[in-house]
Design goal:
Helix content is 40%, strand content 16%. The longest helix is centred in the middle third of the chain and has 24 residues, at 406-429. The protein has 21 helices and 23 strands. Bound molecules: pyridoxal-5'-phosphate. Pyridoxal-5'-phosphate is lined by residues 84, 87, 109, 133, 202, 238, 241-242, 276-279, 326-330, 534.
Length: 630
């Protein structure tokens, strides 16, 4: 927990996960208590628990880190960040960030028309920035320029050369022209520097967006003339999210700073350098070799950016720019925890359930498998596992050929699981960690894992795990003073074999199973998925029509440290809402269902009262949750 929790998460004396929204030294909120209180109010997992104070803490920490770096490095300009709302557009999230960011003139970034519409009215103060990235059409460009006409710093960032033509076009029929000031705009640079890791393709020369240097130079000729009515005020780049290494950040900032400096030397009075997103968080439990890990802290990031910019500007003899960053993940990831309930557990049989088939002698291949079970643990684990697999394959083949009975096949399956679990016991006794094992034996761990059925959809709530193999810290949120004696994988409710989590992080490496507790009758068992606040809530998919989960917004109670209050509970999507997304509506469906029932009532197969009851059940489900009601 300390390796990924960044001081915000810990395990308290009760063995529960607790959250410190203000970081180390601040009050601590018991997550299990939060879930239990919600449950008493009739609100059940799956739940997204948002710690709104944690958002505020992150905004303050980011701004302070830059302010400190600026003071230490002696940087002669300021930092003015923006929050890219694509990372989590929920209004409460955006409002919280803006409120916490007010003392720092913190602004917003948008990447589409809907995001522009959501963000523009929030520019309550004229010094706030709204950076407009993404592809733009005429209406979007017009609204951006109208924003400037209202005296706001709404800056279109050109992603492609075609957008420059659009800008020129819209410039001449602006809704609110301000004769005294030119229209300001920025460009996204296509740098040579690339990042590394899962999101590396967002940067570099082949990236989807950005102007090449030659395109930029061509554009400059057109705006150099002050009569153009345009002023290039901002250079932007985005290397990709979750940048792994400070080296990449320094390289990219150096390259962008050189371009900035050379343009300043040519007389372009560019004000802002926007270094995009990419500031990462530690998902990987301190394992520096994992694909999603980062090698720096927030403070080191700020210092690297500021000191690199100062160095290049000093070398080039130009005044340093206002620094903008578009950090989304780093602000939002920590603040929300997804909590699900385990609905059941299925394990592989480890001891014989069936009796040895009596009638007739056992076929040779079954005998061989039985002998293998009996020789364990004397055979070396890898060799024994390969032998067991080969015998299983032969047995399966013989069954397909009709040479084995059902009982013999069932018995063989049991022998196989007995052999496998004995091999696993040998490995455990040798004290070998599963991630140290050769791949076939890691597969064995996976094969033997218990399946914990959880009330959630991977596609809805953990999309990056499915889509790009991202890891998240996952653990039970209670019973943490009890040894977890099972090795499990998590399976979701969807009818899709991809709907499972079988890759977990430990400080030592990746692991296919998670240590979990055995279930107790009539007692809920909750798992927490941490660092879920960035992208996961918003990008989730509707597979099997599982909808948004219920959200609870939790605040620390300032008058009573350790206590908390639930400010808001946003109900999750109902079955009815999910169905409407795909054009099914209750009235129509109920009419059809009723017709179906009435046909049976007419023939006497169903009594009228029974028919009414079935229809009522059908109606009730419309209004309920898409998840299982445990
Ligand atoms: N800015 C741009 C242009 C982006 O595409 C993104 C997302 O990848 C971000 C900012 C946010 O990045 P991050 O969440 O890594 O801070």
């Amino acid at each position: 927990v300390p390796a990924w929790g960044a001081g915000y998460f810990h395990v308290n004396e009760a063995g529960h996960v607790a959250v410190r929204p203000q970081g180390l030294g601040g009050p601590s909120i018991d997550l299990f208590e939060v879930v239990s209180r919600l449950r008493r109010q009739g609100i059940h997992p799956p739940l997204l628990v948002r710690f709104q104070d944690l958002l505020r803490t992150r905004v303050v920490q980011l701004n302070r880190a830059f302010r400190r770096a600026i003071a230490e490095v002696g940087y002669a300009n300021v930092y003015q960040g923006v929050y890219p709302i694509k990372v989590n557009q929920l209004r409460e999230v955006v409002e919280e960030i803006l409120e916490a960011g007010q003392p720092f003139s913190f602004g917003l970034e948008c990447g589409s028309k809907p995001e522009l519409l959501a963000a523009l009215p929030y520019l309550e103060r004229d010094d706030m920035l709204l950076i407009c990235n993404g592809c733009k059409d005429r209406a979007m460009m017009q609204l951006i320029l109208a924003g400037q006409g209202l005296g706001k710093r709404v800056i279109p960032v050109l992603e492609r050369m075609e957008e420059f033509a659009l800008l020129l076009e819209v410039l001449h029929d602006r809704l609110l022209p301000r004769a005294s000031t030119p229209v300001i705009f920025g460009v996204r640079l296509r740098l040579s520097t690339t990042g590394a890791g899962l999101w590396a393709e967002s940067g570099g020369e082949t990236s989807k967006f950005g102007l090449s240097l030659s395109e930029l130079l061509g554009l400059l000729d057109r705006v150099a003339d002050t009569r153009s009515g345009l002023s290039l005020q901002l250079l932007h780049f985005h290397l990709g999210s979750q940048i792994a290494s400070l080296t990449h950040i320094r390289e990219a900032v150096t390259e962008a700073a050189r371009i900035y400096a050379r343009l300043r030397q040519r007389g372009f009075s560019i004000t802002y350098l926007d270094i995009g997103g990419g500031l990462g968080v530690t998902y990987e439990a301190g394992n520096p070799h994992a694909p999603g890990s980062i090698d720096y802290t927030l403070e080191e990031y700020a210092r690297a950016v500021v000191s690199t910019l100062r160095r290049v500007c000093d070398e080039e003899g130009v005044p340093p720019p206002v620094i903008i960053s578009e950090s989304g993940r780093a602000l939002t990831a920590y603040h929300s925890v997804f909590v699900t309930e385990v609905l059941g557990m299925r394990s592989k049989p480890r001891a014989a359930l069936l009796k040895i088939p009596r009638n007739g002698t056992l076929p040779a291949e079954l005998k061989a498998l039985w002998q293998l079970v009996e020789t364990l643990p004397s055979t070396a684990p890898l060799e024994a596992y390969r032998h067991a697999q080969a015998l299983r394959e032969t047995i399966n083949q013989h069954f397909r050929e009709g040479r084995l009975s059902l009982e013999q096949k069932a018995f063989a399956e049991q022998l196989y699981w007995m052999a496998s679990s004995r091999i696993q016991t040998c490995l455990a006794e040798q004290g070998t960690f599963s991630f140290e094992l050769p791949e076939p034996l890691q597969q064995l761990t996976l094969e033997l894992a218990d399946h914990y059925l959880c009330n959630f959809s991977v596609f809805r709530s953990l999309i990056d795990h499915w889509a790009i193999g991202q890891h998240f810290p996952i653990m039970p949120i209670h019973r943490l003073n009890e040894p977890p004696t099972r090795q499990g994988i998590l399976v979701d409710l969807t009818c899709d074999s991809d709907g499972q989590v079988s890759n977990f992080v430990t400080p030592f490496g990746q692991k296919h199973t998670l240590e979990l507790h055995p279930l107790r009758p009539n007692e809920p068992y909750y798992l927490g998925f941490f660092l879920m606040g960035a992208y996961q809530d918003i990008m989730g998919d509707q597979h099997n029509l599982f909808g948004r989960v219920t959200e609870a917004h939790v605040y620390a109670d300032e008058d009573e440290p350790g206590n908390f209050y639930l400010e808001l509970v946003l109900p999750g999507a109902t079955v009815q809402e999910q169905l409407a997304q795909v054009q099914y509506y209750p009235n129509d469906l109920e009419r059809r269902m009723n017709r179906l029932i009435q046909e049976k009532v007419r023939t006497g197969a169903v009594r009228p009262r029974e028919g009414v009851e079935v229809l009522e059940l059908y109606r009730q489900i419309f209004r309920g949750s898409t998840y299982l009601e445990a």
